[in-house]
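[stage:ingest] chain + small molecule (S-adenosyl-L-homocysteine)
[stage:ingest] validated
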Amino acid sequence: MKYFPIFIDVAQRVCLLVGGDEAAARKLRLLLKAGAKVRLVAKQVTPEIAEAIAGGSVGYAQRDFVPADLANVAYIVVSDDSQAEAVRAASARLGIPLNVVDRPDLSTAITPGIVDRNPVIVAIGSNGGAPVLVRRLRERIEAALPPGLGRLAAFAQRFRLAVAATRPPGDARRRFWEGFFDGPVAAQVLDGREDEACDEMLRLVNAAEQPAPAGLVSLVGVGPGDPDLLTLKALRAMQDADSVLYDALIGPEILDYVRRDAERICVGKRKGAHCKSQKEILELLRERAAAGRRVVRLKGGDPFLFGRGGEELVYLRQQGIAAEVVPGITAALGAAAAAEIPLTHRGLAQGCSLLTGHGKDGEPDLDPALLAGQGTLAIYMGLSVAKRLAERIVAAGRPAGTPVAVVERATWKDQRTLYGTLETLGDLVRREAVIGPALLIVGDVVSLGREAAPPRSLLQAAV
Ligand code: SAH
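[stage:predict] done
[stage:export] C-alpha cells:
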C-alpha cells in the first residue's frame, strides 16, 4: 500500500487551488462542499469559477503562483501543469499535502473516487494508477448502496451519545449497534419512516441492557484457499467474530476477510508441528465462548472432512456450549475443479471415495476393498506417503498404469497439477519437489484433466 488513506478536515482551513480550468472547477466544488476557505491562483478561470469568485466564496489572485501563497495552507491542489514544479519545490519543505491533477508522480496526496452518501463517504483509490477502473468501481458501489444510507448514518449519529451513556464501551456497545443496523429500526429509516423509527429507537436505547449473549462457536469451513470460494455464511461469521482461531493451512488470503478488530489466534496445525495441541484448542474454544464471545474456528475445506470438526463439536456439546457448523468446499472438490477432473464420469467412475493417507500412527491406513474398487480416489494428506500409498493401491488390485493427478495448492494463485500413474507417483512427487498442501486423485477420470494427455480411445469411451 503506497498511500495511507485518511479523511482530512478542511472546514475553515485554507486550501490553495492553482489553476482555473475545468479540473480546477471540479476540485473547487468539492473543497467548498467540505467547508474549505479556498485561495485560488490562476491567470484565467472558467465561468463557473468566475461566478464563485464573484459570489465571494473564493479568494482570488490573477497571476502565477508565488511561494507566499502557501501561508497557512492545509492542502494544495494544482491543475495547471505549468505551475506544478514551482508549487512542488516551494511546498515540499513545508510538508503540505500536494495534489497535482492527473500527475501522481508529482503529488504527495491523491484524491480518491468518491461515493457520497453523506455522512457516509466511500473513497476508492488505485495508487493513482487506474482512474478508469476506479470510476467503474464507483458506479458499482453507487448502485449497491441504498440512497437512504446517509440518512441512516445521520440517524445513528443522533443517538450516539445516548447509546454511549447507556452501554459500556466495547462488546456491549458494538453489539447494540450491530443489532440496530441489522434490525427493523434501521430498515424503517432506510424506508423513510424516520418518525416511527425515532420512537422505537428511544425505546431500545432506554431498555435495560441486554444480558451478555451466550457465546457461540462457529466451526467454519473456508474452502481450499481462494477467498471467492467462501460461502456467504462463512463470510458473515468471520465478519461478526470476536475471536478467530485458525489453522496454518488455510489459504493465505482468507484472513483478510476476518473482522479487523477480532482477536486472532493461530493454532497452526501442520502435520508433525502443532503449535497448539488439540486439547489446548478445545479449551480455548470453550473458555472464549463461555465468556460470551462469538468464536469462529476457521478450518480449511470443510470442517467435517479430516478436520477434527467432529471432535470439537462433540466436546462443545458436552460442555453445554452452543455451536454451529458452516460447511465449506472441501479440498477434493476444489482440486477437482482446479484441475478440471470430474470426480465421477459416466463410463469412467460411478463414485468417488474421500480418503486420508495419514493414519493415526502416521502410516497409511486404508481399507483394501475401497482401494480396489472402480471409483475415483481422492486422497488427503497423502503426499509424504505417496509411494507407499500407490503400492498399496496396486497391491489391492488396481493396474499400475492407473492415472494419478497431484493437485498442489488447489485454487491458490500458485496452484499446479502434475500427472503420472500409480507406478510413477513416488518419483513424480520427489522429482517435482511437491510441498503441498496437495491432494491426490487416482482413477481413469484423471485422463480428462486439463493438462493430461488422454489416450484417444479413453476420450471416445468417455463421451
Ligand atoms: N478439512 C479439509 C482437509 C484438512 S486435511 C478439507 O475439507 O479440505 C489437510 C489436507 O487437505 C492436506 O494435507 C491436503 O491433502 C488437503 N488440502 C487442503 N487444502 C488443499 C489445497 N488447497 N490443495 C490441495 N490439497 C489441499
